[in-house]
Amino acid sequence: MQLFIGGACAGKRDLVAARFPDAGWSRIDEMGLDGAEHHLRPGAVRVLTGWTRWLAQALATEPDDDRLRERLVAALDALRNAEREARGEIVLILPEMGRGIVPMDAADRRLRDLAGWLAQDAAARADAVWYVRHGLARRF
Amino acid sequence: MAAAMIAFVSGGARSGKSGVAEALTREAHAARGGERYYLATARAGDGEMAARIARHRRERGDDWLTREPPLAFAEALATMPPGSTALLDCLTLWASRVMFEAGFSEAEAEGRAMLAAGLDEARRRDLALVVVSNDLNEDLPPRDALVWRYLAFLQALHRDLAAASDRVIEVVAGRAIDWKGDAS
Q1: pTM of the model
Q2: I need a labelling partner for B177 at 20 to 30 A (CA). Which of A74, B24, B27, B142 fits?
């Protein structure tokens, strides 16, 4: 699993598209979190985007942040297992949104928290983590 | 004459980016000789802004040839003797003037073209050009459509500039982190 994280319009997609020209792309907010791992075909690369919108929708219906985080961790583990079984690769594109002032709105605060936890949990499971800034990438 | 050198320096508010950029500009100038220019993009619209400009001027010292370039800042670069050194501070304000004051029908395209023209002029005249900007894109995604548009525009400029630069430097607490072309 590879993780590309960076701020809005940092150039994450272009970098990933250049690095994985044959990858298939899916939006997690459109296909859903459960069963996302079934979209990885043997030997293929699958890029997963749309996490911000998924989080924003999910927190509107699930009031418990810990439960949401557990769901996401389970999904990440399922993706890791699918990678091993299919000998494929998952590429996650995640937003960095934690470097502003504390939002006034409670839902915004939750979104920011959940995005941060997701990034930490994904980074802990990723083989490589890339920080993208102004179209350039640094590997951690 | 030394070859052209373009550097992009950015960071958060009060990260010390101007100080790092000024030091880099002085360093380039010391090695190259010639003139050293300060291209100010701020305009004093109110008292707070005037005080801010005065503070910046005090901090950088008065040994700069200060210019207030037009938005098409390539025109200002074109008046400089080849081999000169220039500091443009900052691209964030320039971008907001391009988007909100200039009345362009397609501010994004105009802005990117003016930036590209400036960078071309710097290369053509073998200038050392240091450009300062603010990192604003690691906050929550903006709600307001106009703010989104500005952020996307600024980031397009940042990506263009980073791609064209010899050095890209992130500033945190006054310390420089090299992203491209580390000279050390």
Answers
A1: 0.94
A2: B142
Identified catalytic residue from B27, B56, B71, B93? B56
Q: Which of B138, B161, B179 is the closest to A7 by Cβ? A: B138
Interface of A with B (CB under 8 A): 6-11, 52, 95-101, 103, 108, 111-112, 133-136, 138
C-alpha–C-alpha distance, residues A122 and A77, integer Å: 9
Mean pLDDT of the residues in chain B? 94
pLDDT at B184: 52
Is the pLDDT assigned to residue A43 strictly greater than 70? yes
The answer to whether the beta carbons of residues B83 and B33 sit under 8 Å apart is yes
Nearest-CA distance from B99 to chain A in Å?
17
User: CATH for B5-180?
Assistant: 3.40.50.300
For chain A, the domain total comes to 1
Say which CATH number the domain at A44 has: 3.40.50.300
Domain coverage including residue A63: 2-139
pLDDT average, residue stretch B91-102: 96
The domain limits of chain B are 5-180
Is A134–B156 a contact, with Cβ atoms under 8 angstroms apart?
no
What is the ipTM score, two decimals? 0.92
- Which pLDDT score, from 0 to 100, does residue A103 have? 93
Q: Which runs of E-coded beta strand occur in chain A?
A: 2-6, 24-27, 45-49, 89-95, 128-133, 136-139
